[in-house]
Specification:
The chain has 708 residues and is of the alpha+beta class. The chain contains 15 helices and 33 strands. Strand 5 (58-60) and strand 6 (64-70) form a beta hairpin. Among the domains are: 19-142, Immunoglobulin-like, CATH 2.60.40.10; 607-699, Golgi alpha-mannosidase II (Immunoglobulin-like, Sandwich), CATH 2.60.40.
Amino acid sequence: MAPGADGPALLPGRPAPLGAHWDGHGVNFAVVSGDADAITLCLFDAGGKRETTQLPLHRSEPGVWHGYLPGAAAGLVYGLRAHGPWEPAQGLRFNAAKLLLDPYAREVVGQFHWGDPHFGHRLDDPAQADTQDNAALALKARVVDKAFDWGDDAAPHIPAADTVLYELHVRGFSRRNPAIEPALRGSYAGLAHPASIAHLQQLGVTSVSLLPVHFALDEQRLAQQGLRNYWGYNTLGFFCPDPRLASLHGGVSPRDEFRAMVRALHKAGIEVILDVVFNHTAEGDERGPTISFRGLDNVGYYRLSDGDRSRYDNYSGCGNTLDVRNPQVLRLVLDSLRFWVQDMHVDGFRFDLAPVLGRTDHGFARNSPFFMALAQDPVLCCVKRIAEPWDLGPGGYQSGGFPRGWMEWNDRYRDSMRRFWLGWQHQSGNGQAFGLRGDFALRLCGSSDMFQAQRRPPQASVNYVASHDGFSLRDLVSYNNRHNLANGEDNRDGHAQNLSYNCGFEGETDDPGILDLRARLQRALLACTLLSQGTPMLGAGAEQGQTQGGNNNPYNQDNETTWLDWPRADADLIAFTARLLELRRLALPFGPDWYSGHQDPLGLCDLCWMRADGRTMEQGDWHDSTGRTLACLIGRPGRARAPMLLLVNAGPTEEPFRLPGGVWQCLLDTRDARGSSRWHGQGDADLAVAAHSLQLLAAAGAGVTLKP
């Protein structure tokens, strides 16, 4: 029970762990601020509207403020006030009139509505502190009870070679699924629903990669337009599941609904990967509000410009950059990651703009304190770590530059596959199509140029052609230009054109020829993505033929633009995708280790590239920009017990391929709507491969039997 104004004094308590923690007898509070003169703990009524008590926290070195409140319990609502100098030119922005959210808050109370009282500075004179008290309007934290019945929950621990990522938005995935009760759609509970899990299992994906679920805010500009930051890349609470993604059905808290979701997915053998945004916070640049970090310890949390400490380094493109060089920020990131693994049972992380985390005083370094701390941490070294390997700072493009043990989104794979399969219609000035076979083969086989020299395995490459960021797969083969007017930026946001494709007809059409072409291209891109060497990633909806109407930056579209259209899902494409993943699981055509191209004692190459006429590819063939066909003889597949043969025809006409000797069976033909084929026959003969398609064959004795 919270004390009143005449309640007991705050005991000194402990400086760790940071945040508010109930031990069954009372609550310990601890917060970092290196430059504050004093930190006050402010207690509120259960609704967070009325401030009842202010208690000064005790200080210990280095810069941790703490106190223990006997008799307090879970449910207590609190905030913080930081007292100290207001000197923006020195990076100091203390303003005790502003109630601050604990950076370690486990649950957030209230709704954030943009208004002048949330700004620490006067809007008419940013050099002056604003004296309006915002406590009644500010977000607060609630002390939580950590208890949860996990039952026999166990992490699936999917091996790297078997991992298939499925990137989804918690709300958009189930919001329109009629098989789920309306009260649960678009929530953690909706993702945990048997209908959702059945679809994931039908596909054969192993790991869901969730767009951000941390507590986030909508930018002021979006709020004024009546829009919201749907994707959620604007974090404020790094320890708190966003309540906007919870159904709250049955009175279950967002925290417990999230944990129940993880438990249900684990029971189905599916891992949970979180997209985490530790590169910036929702407080924005120097014109932004004072909500938490800025008011508590601006110098300690953010990278400030060397020439003007009233301004922020903006390596995120969102106004500010968290400074992981500082121990308190490194500690915040590691504490948050451990919380999500230990308390919430997640299985790994995808790090947004990950080079920010590796930035030292001299730029990005793969041996930075963050990477070293993660590698030695007994909890975090064992979970999946995936980097978005670029940020907006100097030297921010770091593809292939992360430490061993990390996977990376591979944009070179994305661009090469798009050029090879879609670029055949895009003519350069001399009439030649672009997209080299050599680049295609390099990406298909793990991008050795990026990872092998560092002794990183092919699984380090996260292969994808469409993600949340950009055109959906269907729109990729349907639109030349962006259609982003609904975003409120006069169609200026997102990439201007789909430079890898000229579809000949913009948007929807009834032309059967164009529809067939688009369907073939979708299947070819899916086949390459899911069969390539490396770690495949499928964007949710790609298997359903999901369209966003040509919007290639729908970050603020919380509506039918981004919600999966389950009633109109392409059943054939779903079955095709499931066949691909079954084929990957059973045969793993490209194995988990690097290929050398060398022959074994029997004269069989572990990997051999050939022209359509059966001859070995030569140097000139790799650089022939008009070549749209090639074949790959895989002498050492990952799981099949005999060689496999991939035949690729990205050109506009059917082409004959000369088969090696032996008996062959076709396991996949992307010309077919579901990828099936009954062809089998003798080698040393030609096999026709349709335009814009590929076939995967297995030699006799491969031992790969697919479901009908």
